[in-house]
Amino acid sequence: MELTQKKEQFVNKIKTLYPNNFGEVLKNIENPKPVTFRINTLLFPAKDTVEKTQQILDTLTSLGFEIEQGPLINSYIVKTSPSNLRLSETKAFETGQIYIQNLSSMLPVEALGPKPTDKVLDLCAAPGSKTLQIAQATQNLAQITAVENNRNRFFALQKNLESHGAKNFTLLMENAQYLTNRHPDFIESFDKVLVDAPCSNEGQVVLNDIKSLARWNPKTPKHLAKLQKKLIAEGAKLLKKDGTLVYSTCTFSKEENEDVVSWVLTKFPNLKLIEQSRVLPNNNFTGFFLAKLVKSA
């Protein structure tokens, strides 16, 4: 299928999903979002957070970056950049003082609300953005188990966590679909479980960059939904009673989002849906979906 045909098919999908506001959605996915980032507070003592954060922001400003506070905890938006320097080329990035991450991607950990006393499972962890966010939110005190099946992605995850100062984590190079079989001691042992599932990445499509549609396949959501159901079911089994599970994707497809959540609620009657939301794209956020569930005692 040619990219122009893909674009037309994608636009029609958005119109079907959002019949009342598709114009707004389509307008907000025409162009890429600004670069956003977090300050990596794992690299300095908590008492120095305010001072160190300001120093990092002042240095970036002196290089020609215009930065404003983002809408989420510890989030910053690059409004303008110097013509000869990218944020990913700065010393702040290269030394791990900042971590580039889009705003929508920061939402699942905020919803999860990890605490320093928690045992936390990141079921689909690579490249480690959310694992690091969990470590940062709990000041490296939560016990984190991060799972990644792909060998190359596993070692990239390991390097990412270590180079950014994460501690108190265990990495497993295993297929997350079968953790309960390989680790029966994990069953109902985690206070918080994050299932940021592999998805069709429709939220990353930029209409004015037609190449962003190159990997999009309208048949992918149906295929991925099977995997997503296996992953969320595994997460439900590993979650403690009274524990919290967050399921998230960066896609628009209903079969990867609401349908997966409906399925797991039917399969596990002791799960209760606390929150479910579609994040519509706007000036700063990409399309995203997340659901927060709690297991009853």
UniProtKB/TrEMBL annotation:
Xref: SUPFAM superfamilies: S-adenosyl-L-methionine-dependent methyltransferases
Family to which this protein belongs: Belongs to the class I-like SAM-binding methyltransferase superfamily. RsmB/NOP family.
PANTHER family found in the cross-reference section: 28S RRNA (CYTOSINE(4447)-C(5))-METHYLTRANSFERASE-RELATED, NOP2 YEAST -RELATED NOL1/NOP2/FMU SUN DOMAIN-CONTAINING
Organism: candidate division WWE3 bacterium RBG_16_37_10
Record's protein name: SAM-dependent MTase RsmB/NOP-type domain-containing protein
Residues annotated as catalytic: 250
Sites where the protein binds S-adenosyl-L-methionine: 124-130, 148, 196
Lineage top rank: taxon: Bacteria
Domain SAM-dependent MTase RsmB/NOP-type per the UniProt entry, residue ranges: 25-297
Entry's Gene Ontology BP terms: RNA methylation
